Amino acid sequence: xxxxxxxxxxxxxxxxxxxxxxxxxxxxxxxxxxxxxxxxxxxxxxxxxxxxxxxxxxxxxxxxxxxxxxxxxxxxxxxxxxxxxxxxxxxxxxxxxxxxxxxxxxxxxxxxxxxxxxxxxxxxxxxxxxxxxxxxxxxxxxxxxxxxxxxxxxxxxxxxxxxxxxxxxxxxxxxxxxxxxxxxxxxxxxxxxxxxxxxxxxxxxxxxxxxxxxxxxxxxxxxxxxxxxxxxxxxxxxxxxxxxxxxxxxxxxxxxxxxxxxxxxxxxxxxxxxxxxxxxxxxxxxxxxxxxxxxxxxxxxxxxxxxxxxxxxxxxxxxxxxxxxxxxxxxxxxxxxxxxxxxxxxxxxxxxxxxxxxxxxxxxxxxxxxxxxxxxxxxxxxxxxxxxxxxxxxxxxxxxxxxxxxxxxxxxxxxxxxxxx
Amino acid sequence: xxxxxxxxxxxxxxxxxxxxxxxxxxxxxxxxxxxxxxxxxxxxxxxxxxxxxxxxxxxxxxxxxxxxxxxxxxxxxxxxxxxxxxxxxxxxxxxxxxxxxxxxxxxxxxxxxxxxxxxxxxxxxxxxxxxxxxxxxxxxxxxxxxxxxxxxxxxxxxxxxxxxxxxxxxxxxxxxxxxxxxxxxxxxxxxxxxxxxxxxxxxxxxxxxxxxxxxxxxxxxxxxxxxxxxxxxxxxxxxxxxxxxxxxxxxxxxxxxxxxxxxxxxxxxxxxxxxxxxxxxxxxxxxxxxxxxxxxxxxxxxxxxxxxxxxxxxxxxxxxxxxxxxxxxxxxxxxxxxxxxxxxxxxxxxxxxxxxxxxxxxxxxxxxxxxxxxxxxxxxxxxxxxxxxxxxxxxxxxxxxxxxxxxxxxxxxxxxxxxxx
Lengths: 421, 421
Description:
- Chain A has 421 residues and is of the alpha+beta class.
- The first copy, chain A, has helices at 45-53, 104-109, 111-114, 118-140, 179-189, 225-246, 248-254, 270-279, 292-299, 355-364, 373-377, 393-400; strands spanning 5-19, 22-28, 33-39, 59-68, 76-87, 144-145, 151-152, 164-167, 170-174, 191-199, 212-221, 266-267, 306-308, 311-312, 329-330, 332-336, 344-350, 386-392.
- Chain A has two domains: 5-87, CATH 2.40.50.140; 112-409, Bira Bifunctional Protein, Domain 2 (BirA Bifunctional Protein, domain 2, 2-Layer Sandwich).
- Chains A and B meet through strand 1, helix 4, strand 6, strand 7 and strand 8 of A and strand 1, helix 4, strand 6, strand 7 and strand 8 of B.
């Protein structure tokens, strides 16, 4: 908008400041903000008295002239000819304007108001960029976008963490990931992905768990572990580049100043990770998985993303490939976000595709191959070697935007205690 | 790939035809197909005897030279130097190669094999384009992509068609649409969308119902009914254009020859729709909604998309705006896909945003405003006028690709009877 232009602007009233014969209305528009400067005598008496009536969060329509201003904070102001109250507002139960945020539980209770705050909007404009950048990158790499079922019949990955659904009187579950289905699609399409909601009925009340989260689920035929690491690294860097291009102002609002693409990634063997942890005082034996404290200690050691490219087979899900020479090792790869806001971004790796080995592996882990039905059957029909990963959208957001809690990356977060609004 | 080039190709064996000292292997690759021509004497004895062992759906790696051929159906063939069986196959329980498809229930039972068929892959490569084109268009129109919750606490839209979820011992539901949540986001972002799974526990065993489907959910502040119709029309035409650009070969495989952008849309008032139906012999009174038969009769009358831009208020959900002058009418807009494969593509319209009117409307429809909690509360805080729509991805696919049943547009469809695989 140039100066001296006629404009019509819609927005919520943030503040009205009066100084004698002049009033300043700060409007929060959908995209940013505008200042409306009303001068008594230069506007109609009706307009001047309307200004007296305006309250915070009133939704108004302003017609006027946009002019440059060296005094106005925004460098511009609107001199109104007409202001119309489209929808008045009651006083809001939480402060939407102050620098001091309401307590998190209060913000959540009034989330439908909390999301009007510029900081929250900045987070979700960036999330929109992230989702799009991920798809753009994967499509560019020849991946076909598919939609896998959310309601599934069998609790293949261990029933304890699945939400049961009453499916016309039959017990079904919400999918934790599209793991089994995306594998099935690899034999047809070669390279597939989906970005979709996933569900985990875990009673973890931590800063990094959501019961409902979005996952970038990727699976590809004929890939090596190095391919999978490179692909994920380039995916994350592409996302960072797009955010820098499209969300400069949002990053400013959030005070994120040091986001930039990483110059590379590290590969830290499971044994090396153990060493780091022991050096930091953890008592951890070969064969154990990393808990929340271990993870936090590990990521704080790094300032760029890193991969742990293998795990003890005994603590690794059945669908991962076990090393052909060393059966203690499974080809699971975790990608870790670095630094104080670092978390595990993704889990993935190479999958077992030989039916006999898969059956043996299931039995080893105490699972009954018979119960896997179609999933086990499909490997009998010329199944290509493949691998993939599932990357958490909110996890990635937490690290990139330095969010105190992962819940801030979900518009309406779901935790064991919260299912409303 | 040029002729005379060294190539490495992976694929599934579709057929092996032997004619004396020559064998033709037709490979189905992830992207298309290749012919491998093996000449006894020109290849090693080992390679020739390997060909004898190859069976259908064997997954193989072929190294060789690609040459032009005027005889080969594909116009090219690969002269192999090396063939490696990566994964053998048992005989498949359904025919993946014949022109005659297996019966639909059988195809569904073996869906993990059925999706390897070129026709099925063509459908989902087009779906991938559709999803991307929809987002591209909406982002271009200034919409922010958001993710709304799937697990919701209250059965606001009428509990009968919701799937119950056991949420840590508390009863919750799967969202039918993001209706209430996308409305909440409009006050913050102005223009929002999501493409996400939705769930309807409807025991409809028809050719146009899925219990799990994907929906393009769009909501915008400050729109007119004409804006909403234009937006949807341009959205669909953009999708069609992208499919024509990116999926020429897939449309050929599916035999879809007449897909093209429409030159415009029609607007058919509810009263005009009644007239058309009565002319066709339906006994339908003012105030009734259209059933499956009426819908089919209506869409077959049109050869381009059309909108029904208002409905009797009594059969319209509470969140639609009722006309300020004629309270019998609500500003619900249905978008209908035309022709023999036509179905209702979307429902949408203008929403009620004045809290007092919304409360009165709820009571009129026999609903208790108290039970709406935060949803009703949010309208008290300067809520902008707004409207939107929810467009069914599979519905759109059904019409555009002339699919006999909507289930073919879902990789693993969910119906009242089917929840596996």
